[in-house]
Specification:
Length: 477
């Protein structure tokens, strides 16, 4: 290898070292994460918890409902849901593209092998000038990243990986919220169906008793007709609740990666309504911004766009490429590895764009515009996240107050129903009063279930707005 050392003079070696040293330079500033200007507290005025306590609770917020069936469904969804699996593959794509970008930092080496048999001439008697040739070589080229274009490409690709990670987490957060919401709708529909069926049974018994009184001539047929009308009105809501139950079961089956009907055996037995905890897992808005996957995704997207500004900027500067090769060429196998068969080449190339018809300048403007739009998108995501939490807090609080008022109303309606029945039994009032109070009690019971469902849905929306559940089902690199 002495001839190689003689070929590369001291000056050439110093030049290569200088190029490698220059490769640490960047023509653009390093990325600085944007400052979140989120407010210091919530307008709803809720008490915040310690961030560590809130994070621990939000990581698996569905456990707060103390429902083992919901826990089973969540575990299945994390493992089998198709949206999660699709997001996982998109993350793998981003990681592969990052590795492609990283490969540009290293020499590109190829092995070439060639065996030929050649003839240089021919006469009428015999072939002349026939010979063999065997060649094996290693060809390589290395672009010295003097102005940081390749490094910025790697930085952008790594930020894209981060954005894909956050996209997958965001899908998970949305999945958990949608699954819990459908489960809450299911349990509420089952409860409303039970209330309706109980009222159907009461109305049927009332109709039977009223028919007996009519047969004895104690009441007019108008009373019987009125009771029959109420019975049919109550019966009419039963199919609606049954359909809602089936729709919820089908939706849950799809969310856990199955087909409609696969979760029927698990869910067809009615269960209790989802309750609400006494304490909300709130932290200050700035901590929420650090937890929300969509906000973090917007920040990573901005980081990638900023790095690509550096890639575009580097196109204005020269490119330094070092091609080199080494191999062996011989006419026979016996001399293939002899020193005389050894061949090599070494060069240094510099390329500087002079005229591109405005392409490079346009690419730079494009990169700047994309980075600015991504910066604005990040600021928009921060504001949307704060609004999501505020809206969920308002909705949760208002529905909680509504539940209290409806429960008080239902209690009063029950007392009124009892009093009207007593008066009817004494002959002091007609049965229309009893019917009116019966219907009022049934409506009050149904309204309570609807209000409790609305409160739970607002609570689930709050968990989603706080970014709860993103850390479950994480993937290793």
């Amino acid at each position: 290898m002495g001839f190689v050392r003689r070929f590369i003079s001291l000056r050439a070696r110093m030049g290569i070292v200088a190029l490698i040293a220059l490769a640490g330079c960047n023509v653009t500033k390093d990325y600085v994460p944007p400052h979140s200007d989120a407010p210091a507290g919530w307008n709803a005025g809720q008490v915040t918890l310690d961030d560590q306590q809130a994070s621990a609770y939000l990581a698996r917020w569905w456990h707060g409902f103390n429902d083992p069936v919901l826990d089973v469904l969540v575990a299945r969804a994390i493992e089998r849901n198709y949206d999660i699996r699709i997001a996982t593959q998109r993350l793998q794509q981003a990681r592969a593209m990052r590795d492609v970008a990283v490969s540009a930092q290293y020499p590109q080496i190829a092995v070439n092998m060639l065996a030929t048999r050649n003839q240089t001439g021919y006469d009428w008697a015999e072939a002349i000038g026939v010979y063999n040739s065997f060649t094996v070589g290693f060809d390589a080229a290395w672009e010295i990243d003097v102005f940081g274009g390749v490094r910025r490409s790697v930085e952008a690709a790594q930020a894209d990986v981060g954005a894909s990670v956050e996209s997958r987490r965001d899908v998970l957060v949305s999945l958990l919220a949608e699954l819990a919401t459908n489960y809450a709708v299911l349990r509420a529909a089952q409860e409303r169906l039970a209330i309706a069926r109980a009222n159907v049974a009461i109305s049927e018994e009332t109709l039977r008793l009223m028919q007996v009184r009519f047969d004895k001539g104690l009441v007019p047929d108008q009373d019987v007709a009125q009771i029959r009308a109420q019975l049919e009105s109550v019966r009419a809501v039963v199919p609606e609740f049954m359909a809602t139950i089936q729709w919820a079961i089908n939706a849950i089956a799809i969310l856990v990666g199955g087909f409609p009907g696969e979760t029927t055996a698990l869910l067809e037995t009615p269960g209790p309504l989802l309750g609400v905890p006494s304490t909300l897992p709130l932290t200050v808005p700035s901590e929420v911004m650090l937890r929300r996957p969509d906000v973090r995704r917007a920040e990573r997207t901005l980081a990638a766009a900023t790095a690509r500004v550096g890639v575009a900027e580097a196109q204005f500067f020269p490119k330094f490429i070092i091609p080199f090769g080494v191999g062996s060429q011989a006419g026979t196998i016996q001399t293939f590895l002899s020193p005389a068969s050894f061949i090599w080449n070494f060069a240094a190339a510099v390329g500087q764009p002079v005229f591109q018809g405005g392409r490079i300048e346009a690419q730079k403007r494009l990169a700047d515009a994309i980075a600015e739009s991504d910066r604005l998108a990040y600021e928009k995501a921060v504001r949307a996240a704060v609004r999501d939490v505020e809206d969920a807090l308002v909705g949760f609080g208002s529905q909680g107050r509504r539940v209290v008022l409806l429960e008080s109303s239902a209690q009063a309606q029950g007392i009124a129903r009892m009093r009207s029945q007593q008066l009817f039994d004494r002959g002091l009032t007609d049965y229309f009063k009893v019917l009116y109070n019966d219907r009022s009690v049934w409506i009050a019971q149904d309204d309570i279930v609807v209000a409790k469902l609305a409160q739970v849905r607002q609570l689930i929306a709050l968990y989603k707005a706080l970014g709860g559940g993103w850390s479950v089902g994480e993937l290793d690199e």
